[in-house]
């Protein structure tokens, strides 16, 4: 598979200002040097505890928020160098599905209005019956009846609302969709339906997904590869089956030890991490995980471990791997 997206040393720092004269006192390093690649047609899951920078990474890649530093190469285009007009055109290729469709859909707009909006922005020549047909087609593609196009978001269930959010993201035939916890607000039975739909759509339209999630059982089901984030950095990136069978980074090992497995013989000893995730305002020096790592040594407190290839296709950022 070829590379669709390459992210190098991506940073998003939020300045902190305090006091009467709003003096700059530091920065929250929400994303602090993320490196990853997304291959054409795959689903790359991005996992980690809340606050590790997953959503910020997704939004910064699409420039829904402006990155502080780093490189984003999408299909040969340097996304950070795009001016407003070129970025607007690029948005037809890179879309986002949000966690809470209720918050991301305008409650005053009917489904028709919501789904017509991308066409009005990017294909203003489309109108009348043709536009109506496109909206109907989009609704059918995500399993909704076009007869309900005149309804408002509150008239739909949570799962149906997420289908509307997916239809909106697909309107312009994107190549790449960042899905930010797309099913975590839904009941488990509905989750499976929406995930199944997303997999069908991926196959049908050749989509590439970045799937942000904290739910490892969902990640195991849907992803080809996984990037594990801790305090604004990717600490391990590996094929899903390898990561679940043989996690390398001590943080990944701890995450994996909490996943229930059906076969008790395969159960790993539960690794309980001490302490909380440190503040991204003041991350620990050296390896940011050293304050909680059960195997940290002296070098861990001094040197930042680089994300490096451990075996073909597997990368980890740890001095001891
Ligand atoms: Fe633990 Fe050191 Fe590896 Fe960081 S570099 S994960 S502290 S062993
Ligand atoms: Mg999030």
Entry keywords:
321 residues, alpha/beta, Rossmann fold, 8-stranded mixed sheet, 4-stranded antiparallel sheet, globular, binds iron/sulfur cluster, binds magnesium ion, transport, nucleotide-binding, ATP-binding, ABC_transp_ATP-bind
Structure description:
- The protein is of the alpha/beta class.
- It has a single domain (3-93, 172-316), classed as P-loop containing nucleotide triphosphate hydrolases (Rossmann fold), CATH 3.40.50.300.
- It is built from eleven helices and twelve strands.
- It has helices at residues 54-61, 84-90, 101-104, 111-122, 128-141, 158-170, 188-205, 216-222, 240-245, 250-257, 298-302, and strands spanning 3-18, 23-39, 43-47, 69-74, 77-78, 94-97, 176-180, 208-212, 225-230, 233-239, 308-311, 314-316.
- An eight-stranded mixed β-sheet has the order 6-7-8-3-9-10-12-11, sandwiched between helices. Strands 2-1-4-5 form a four-stranded antiparallel β-sheet.
- Strand 1 (3-18) and strand 2 (23-39) form a beta hairpin.
- Helix 4 crosses helix 5 (128-141).
- The protein is globular.
- The mean pLDDT is 93.
- Bound molecules: iron/sulfur cluster and magnesium ion.
- Magnesium ion binds next to helix 1.
């Amino acid at each position: 598979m070829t590379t669709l997206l390459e992210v190098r040393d991506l940073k998003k720092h939020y300045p902190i200002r305090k006091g009467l004269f709003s003096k700059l006192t530091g920065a929250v390093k929400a994303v602090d040097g993320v490196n990853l690649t997304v291959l054409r047609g795959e689903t790359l899951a991005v996992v980690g505890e809340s606050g590790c920078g997953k959503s910020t990474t997704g939004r910064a890649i699409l420039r829904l928020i402006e990155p502080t530093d780093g490189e984003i190469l999408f299909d040969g285009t340097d996304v950070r160098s795009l001016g407003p007009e070129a970025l607007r055109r690029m948005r037809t290729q890179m879309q986002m599905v949000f966690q809470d469709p209720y918050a991301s859909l305008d409650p005053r707009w009917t489904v028709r209005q919501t789904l017509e909006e991308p066409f009005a922005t990017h294909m203003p020549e489309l109108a009348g019956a043709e536009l109506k047909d496109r909206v109907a087609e989009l609704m059918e593609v995500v399993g909704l009846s076009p007869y309900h196009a005149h309804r408002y978001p509150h008239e739909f269930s949570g799962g149906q609302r997420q289908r509307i959010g997916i239809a909106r993201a697909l309107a312009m035939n994107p190549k790449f969709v960042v899905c930010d916890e797309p099913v975590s607000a839904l009941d488990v039975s509905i989750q499976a339906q929406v995930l199944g739909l997303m997999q069908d759509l991926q196959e049908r339209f050749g989509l590439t997904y970045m799937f942000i999630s904290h739910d490892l059982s969902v990640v195991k089901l849907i992803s080809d590869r996984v990037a594990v984030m801790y305090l604004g950095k990717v600490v391990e990136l590996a094929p899903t089956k390898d990561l679940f069978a043989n996690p390398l980074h001590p943080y990944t090992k701890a995450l994996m030890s909490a996943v229930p497995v059906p076969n008790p013989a395969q159960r790993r000893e539960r690794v309980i991490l001490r302490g909380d995730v440190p503040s991204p305002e003041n991350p620990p020096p050296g390896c940011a995980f050293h304050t909680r790592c059960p195997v940290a040594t002296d070098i861990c407190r001094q040197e930042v471990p680089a994300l490096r290839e451990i075996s073909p296709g597997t990368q980890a950022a740890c001095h001891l791997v």
